Amino acid sequence: MEPINQNNPIDKCRKCLICDGKSNAARMGLDMCRACATFYKRATGKKFYECLSGTNKCALNKGDACKKCRKDKIDKLLSNMSDTGKPKVSNPSSTASTESDPVPLRDAHDTPCDPSCSNIDAGASNSALILNRVRSAYKNMSHTRLTTELLTRPSIIHPMLITDEDCPFEQATAGTIEAVNRILISTIPVFARLAFPEFGSLSKQHQWMIAKKFFIRFRFYEASYRADKLFPEEPDRLCAGYTYWFTHHYDEGFYKDCPNVIDVQHVKTSMHQFCKEHHGRFKGFMKRLKMSEPEFLYITALMFWTLEDLELPNYVTEIGDGYRASIMREMHAYFLEERKMENYAARLGELLTAIQTFDMTEARMKQNLEFMRLMNVLSDDSFIYQIQREDAPPRNFVLL
Prior knowledge:
Shape: elongated
Structural class: mainly alpha
Pfam families: Hormone_recep (PF00104), zf-C4 (PF00105)
Organism: Pristionchus mayeri
Radius of gyration: 24 Å
Domain NR LBD: 137-391
CATH class of the largest domain: Mainly Alpha
CATH architecture of the largest domain: Orthogonal Bundle
GO molecular function: DNA-binding transcription factor activity; sequence-specific DNA binding; zinc ion binding
Largest sheet: 3 strands, mixed
Region (Disordered): 80-113
Helix content: 40-55%
Order of helices and strands: HEEHHHHEHHEEHHHHHH
Strand order of the largest sheet: 3-5-4
CATH topology of the largest domain: Retinoid X Receptor
Number of strands: 5
């Protein structure tokens, strides 16, 4: 991210269209300050306000407290933007910049992408803003995983094959599973900052707590979803990472790069018995559910912000509550407007069970990893083993 150029006259004259405060970035397609954007996300669909003056025409200078007029003004500007298909900007000079350059100016403290990130179509429907951000962020995460996994293979992969369409899948080993999980969890914070801008404002410790919890849920959720799409005729296969697959049979090749001396036959038999039931249930669940891509992404977003069992400050849980409410509103609109379904309650209920189903993987994952450590498949300093311990972050992982 390029820092704000203090000598750029465009940066100096951009104002928040709501309160006239300083705005160094476009948010939700508008020149809007961080305070107004945060207020709107928390206010939408949650509260009903009364005008302080009774006129519904309060002057909205920076610091004024009429929440109803503030929200109404944002609603009106967003509605106008939706009608025209173009973002609203505060002056002609910045209009020229916006139309010619899809990359918005950002606050110097904005590490994450803003809600108006250029990866989202300026004319996208307001009813799918979160879906569009999550889709863009997931594509970015997937490309990073695809490229990194293929470039770290022992054999050289031709650059023209580093695509989703041509990806050469391979059977995973104990060593590759360790590597691909490190890659996955390393991409989650970036995914979160792109999909959910407020995530970037949290402390690194709170970001890590949320990312780790999401990783534990998401890895088998995504693995089952992608396996059903990629290997519909192979019921035993799950995706292991983005470019690998594995089965609960754990043949001897799985242990060829194990760092320790092990009794392969004993470990193979025990792991097969332990994992067969769980892998089959995950794959069967996804096969029955037949999720569409928007459904997969919406549940991914809900899964990310399901924070009930984490010890987080109130302001963090409020962000999560706001996102979950917004996601549910988008899902209702998706079924009504896109799918033309009037009676979709049963389908929505089916989708929400995915969060519960894959939330239960945490305890099973801990059991499996503890078993693998006892069997010498994993070492004490294994990253994937440390990740499931209560005293995270892992050893030698320093948070500033």
